[in-house]
Each structure stands twice: as C-alpha cells, then as structure tokens.
Amino acid sequence: MKEKKLIAIIGMHSWQKTALVADVGNRTQVPVLSFASPAITSPTIQLRWPLLIRMANDGSAQVKCMADIVRACNWRRVIVIYEEDAYGGDSGMSALLAEALQNIGVEIEYRLVLPSVSYVSNAEGLVQKELVKLENETLCRVFIVLQSSLTMVTNLFREAKKLRLVGGETESAWIIPDSITNMLDSVDKSIMSSMNGTIGIKTQYSNHNKEYVKFEKRYRANRSEEENSKPGIYALRAYDSIKVITRAIKCSSDDSSSLLKNILSDSFSGLSGEIRFEGKMLSQNPKFKIVKVDGEKSNELGIWTPDNNGGVKNKNTKEKAWPGLDKVPKGWAMPSKAKPMRIVVPAHAMFKEFVVDMNRNNSNGEIFGGFSIEIFHKVIEQLNYTDTLQYIFESNSGSYDDLVELVHNKTFDAAVGDITILSNRSKNVEFTQPYTESGLTMVVPAKSKESPWMFMKPFTRGVWLVVAFILIYTMFIVWFLEHPSNPEFKGSLKDQIATAMWFAFCSLFFAHRERIDNHLTRVVIAVWLFLVFVLTASYTANLSSMLTIQSIEPSVTSMELLKRNNLTVGCDKGTFVGNYLKEVLNFSSTNIKEIDREEKYIKEFESKGISAAFLEAPYAKVFLHKYCKGYIADSHTATYRFGGFGFAFQKGSPFAREFSEGILRLSEKGDLKMLEIDLTDPPNECSMSVSSDETRSLGLQSFWGLCLISFSTSTICFLLSLIHLIKNYQRFEEANRGSVTPSGSVWDKAARIAMYFYDKEMGLRRAQSSSELSLVMIQS
Q1: Whole-number average pLDDT of the chain
Q2: How far apart, in whole angstroms, are the C-alpha atoms of residue 621 and residue 632?
Q3: What is the rounded CA–CA span in Å between residue 680 and residue 351?
Q4: What is the C-alpha to C-alpha distance for residues 268 and 282, in angstroms, rounded to an integer?
Q5: CA distances (Å), 693 to each of 265, 552, 772, in order?
Q6: CA pair distance 483, 475, nearest whole angstrom
Q7: What are residue 392's DSSP bridge partners?
Q8: Which helix (H) or strand (E) holds 34?
Q9: Is residue 341 within 8 Å of residue 335, measured between CB atoms?
Q10: How many other CB atoms are found less than 10 A from the CB of residue 381?
Q11: Distance CA 86, CA 456 (A)
Q12: Confidence band, pLDDT 50/70/90 cuts, at residue 776
C-alpha cells in the first residue's frame, strides 16, 4: 500500500473482512469504503475505525422487512438458517431477527447453523444431513436465510429441492436477505431454478434513468460471455464509490484527513441511490424490493419502506395475498398417506355424547363418533379437505392436560375432543375458535316448589291490593248512587254496608241479584264487570298453567351453603374442575369427590354421597337432558366461564387458523346450532317436569289500563251524581229562603249540603218506616 501510494480502499461484502481491512486502514491512514455494515451499529465503531466509511445501512431495516413478510403471511413459527462467519458467529443478525419476530408474536422453531464453507470438505453431504434432521424434528416449513456465502446457499437450495422442501408446488416458504438476492442478477440460471418460489429482499434502486442505462450497456459489453450479466447493487455501489472518491480528490490536499472530510461532506444522486453520509454511513433510509424467484428469473412483488411503519406498496393492483402472491404457502408440512396427521382423542370421555370409540376392538383402526368428532368432520367439509387431508385418530387414556401436553411435545399433531380452552393450556398449544360455550354449572337434586298459598300466585301483591281498592271504591260508588232511590240499599247503616259489600262480592262471580235503578250505576257496574271478567279469565289461565307445570327448585341454593356445612361435591375425574374448586372456589380437598363415569353421579346423589355436582356447562346440559325429572342446575354458578371446547394444534400450525374459520362458517350458517339442539334439547317427557320461570305471576302492568278505566268511570259517575245533588240543594235553598244566597265560607256551604243530604236521608227512612207501619196495621 505504501509502495503503490494508495489513497483509498473500496470493497468488502462481509463485515468480518471489513473489520480486518479497516484495521489496516488505521495503520496506513487510508480511508476504507465498505459495502458491508454490522447488524447493529455500535457507537464505538467511529472511535475504533475513524477512517471507515460504510456504503451501506445496518441490518435492522432488513430484519424488520423480513418480520413484516412473516406477519403479512400469517406465519407463526419460522426456521432460521445462517452460515457462521470466520469467528463462528452471525454478526448479531440472529438476535436482531429474534427480537423483531418476538414483537409480532412469532417464535423461532429451529436454528440451523451451518459452518463456514471454507472449513467443510463435503458441503453437500453436510447440508443434506442437516435438512433431513430438520425435516424429521419439526413441521414448520418457513425458512429464513440470514446470511450465507453464495457457495453454501447454492448447496442449501439444491439439497432442499431434492427433499421437496423448496419449489412452487410445496407448502414451504423461503426468505433470503439482500446479500443473496442482490447476487441473483449475476448467477447461473441453474441456481435460480433451484430457488423457485423463494421470496427475496433486494435493495431498491432506479434502473430507468439515463446514467444507469449507459452504465448497464457498458457493463454488459464487458461481460458478454456471462449467462447473466445484469449489474447488481454491489456494482452500482462500486461505481458510486469511485465517483465519490474522484469528486473528493479534486477538492483535497495530499493528506488523508482532507480526503476523508471531503468524502463525508459530499452529496449527490448516484446509480445506487442518494449518496449522503451521516455518522460515516449512508444516511437515507433503505428501501427494499420484495421479489419472488420464478423459474430462471425474479419478479418484483412490492416495495417495502420503513418510513411507513414497514408498509408495503403492492406492484399488482389485483386483489392478491400480500406480498403479491397468488397463493401464500402454509409454511407447514402437509399430511400425506405416508405421514398422516396424528390426532389424539380422549379414550374415556365422561359423556359419550361428545366422544365415543365406535369400534374399539376393530383391527382396522379406531373410528370415533360423538358431537366433537362430528364438528371436526363438518369443519373438514367446509375447508374442502375431505379428500386431501390425511389423518388418523388415536385414543389416549390420560387426562385432558396430558392430551394437550402430547400435542405440545409433538408426539401428536393435534387433539380433538371435548377439550376446554384454558389460559395455561393456550401457552403450549394453538387452540381453534371454540365450537361450544363453556362454564361451571352446579347440578343439585330438585325439590317441589308447591305451596299452600299457590292460589295467590297468579297475581302479584300489587294486583291484589289494587283490585281490593277498586272493589271497595266501586262498592262505595254503587251505594252512593243507589241508596237514595233503591229500597234494597236502604235500612240502617249496618244493613246498607252489608248490602253493598255483598253486592260487590257477588259481582266477582256475576251472582249479584239486587235490582239497579240508577242509570249511572249501570254504567259503573258494566265497566266493573268487564274488569272482573278479564281478571277472572287471567287468574284461571295462570293458575291452571302453574298447576299443570311441575314447579321445582334446587335443594341447595348456593356454594356458600355447601362450604359452610362441609358438604361433599362431585366433579369429573381427569379434568381441571377439581383443581378449580380447590384453588379458585376454595373448597376443601376432602370435600371433593372425583367421579369417572356419568352413571356414578346418580348413585352418589341417591346414596347422599354428594350434595352437588360441578359440571362444565355442555356436560350439565347433557346430564339434565337425561335426568331432567330429578335434578336442576343452579343459575348462580353461571358467572364462572371458560374458553369453551376447541381443538388443539401445535404452536404455529396454520390448521388452527383454518379450522377456526371453518367453525365460524358453521356457526354463521346455523349448522353448529342445529347440532347443539340435537345434543341438548330436552325430550318430551321432560318438557312438563322441568322448572320453568316462564309462568310468572301477572303484574300490575298487565291490568293498569282496565283498572284506570274502571276507577275513572266510577269517579265520573260519582261527580255527576254529586252535581245533581248540589243542584237540588240550590233549589231547596231558593224555595225556603228566596233568591238570596246565604253568605258564609266554603266549609259552611259544604256543611249545609251535608245536613241537607242527611235530612233527606232521614226523611226517606221515616217515610219508609211509616209505610211499613201502615202495611202492618192493614194486615192486622
């Protein structure tokens, strides 16, 4: 370098080589322009290598782009592959990717670390061995290549193609970084064909301006013998590096510090993009093309920009799955006849209505039936997997937590049955959308709810009080209207009250016989009888309904009563309910009895072995469907709810999402509800014996309109009669005192009217007594 009097060093595609050359640049005081940058920019880089200029950005943007692709394709687990550098590391890219994936809820399923190709004698054999091992250990098929040499990545894709782990027809997905994608412009077509279907990240640059067209023409002319001679980003950056140094030399003195200063202060639009430095690296935010390898060429799918929070602008205007793919690979190994999906099913389900082994002794394999299995088959039909999804059922006698763990440790691919979705289980497996609701229900023996005061229950207390008031009020109005002229309502005050009460009581049964003389009274009685008719009909109908439907109530009304009296309760064996009763509801472990068969609940109830059974809501519905006459569910436990029944798949499995969509379709079409009705609807013999809250006491809101009409009619008739009485009084005053109205207060006038009414009443009584005396004398 001293002999040749070098003024700058340009190149280095890897950060390891850059670090070595930058040390040499420090000793010789020669600026170094590198095409590589570390994954994470350390603040000590400028102190350690003051003459280093990076014609690149760090790896954070590229890693964010990869994470956005994974999120957009709804992949939940990935496999990371990288080739070790000369120091046995990955330059921090793996840690950076892990953090970016963790932020979007994606896990790294497997890390395939390949040694540097310079240290391996048989790279093809090593790669094949590692890929076979990977294929057997995991079902994930989303591969992210973080860093690799062209030689190693060529061997990787060739061996992957042999194992059918790559290609447009598989469900595998591959993502390669810009360090590899940028070299695709200059590799052989055979290498491109082995990478068919791969998604690549490529640094964005303009290839339509005049300067680029001229450069490309000269570049191709010098490489006419090459199969693929299109210039890539490294060629463009090399050209821009020469240009920036040339521009700096023109304005520099002989020392390196002046040259470095002019390089860092320069700014222009180059072939690779805007050339402007900040912190001795390119300052502009990188933009990436999302490309897909299609045979021997690559097609652009979209543009990724960090300025829009990782937003992607699709090149295609048609509605396609981002990033511009006609079909997003599942990123998961599809079951086949040779390797079907293994599904574990509970061998001893508590309620056979949900899961039952149809042919346990059949050597052709286990066939299961029941509500849960039928839902599974219906979902497969919805997803059009009837002929393509290969699976086998295998029973296991472990608890439901054991079934979930068998999926978690990858012994089985899925678990199907009456498996409750719980928070602690969801940490280990991927659950589908629940296909039925779940909650805790307390089932207890029922007792009769009949009462000697049953005849009072058709009406509420408010109705009885209002009817009694209107009865008394109507009785008073009838007496007031009739007693002046009707002899049947005359006599002593005691006789008048008795006659009025008897008349009102008999009118309730339409059995009154007293003669009515006053027309106003007839109006009052007509409205009153109509009210009585409606009340009588409603009372008869409601009482008949109450007596027809057997009314029952729980023998135990609360969990606090069970705990206070140390009563024993039952729950299903092998489920989470036992622990839930102890840890959440604070039942003593000595008062909890686990029951392994449905029939044992009846025996325990009859022998007083348990006072209550705590069942999950779907089980309780089935239990009451069978034993509706003697048992009832307590509504107070309905507040304890769980996630419902669902199917469990391995974490990251796309089948969990697809089956959730299928369950939602069944629910929207009403098929799920119809299956539930067939499972839990009570039979005919239960419909007349179950407790019913539908037959309730009739309240005042049902009759207040009629009551108001009756009250108003009686009041109006009373007022009309009172007006008539006042007019008679006025005529009486005029006849006795002339036309001069006597002075006095309102109370005085009211007192004189009352005296007039009393004198008239007494006169009628004396006349009646005289007529009766005359009649007796005549008879004598």
Answers
A1: 81
A2: 10
A3: 12
A4: 12
A5: 85, 10, 62
A6: 12
A7: 342
A8: strand 32-34
A9: yes
A10: 12
A11: 94
A12: very low
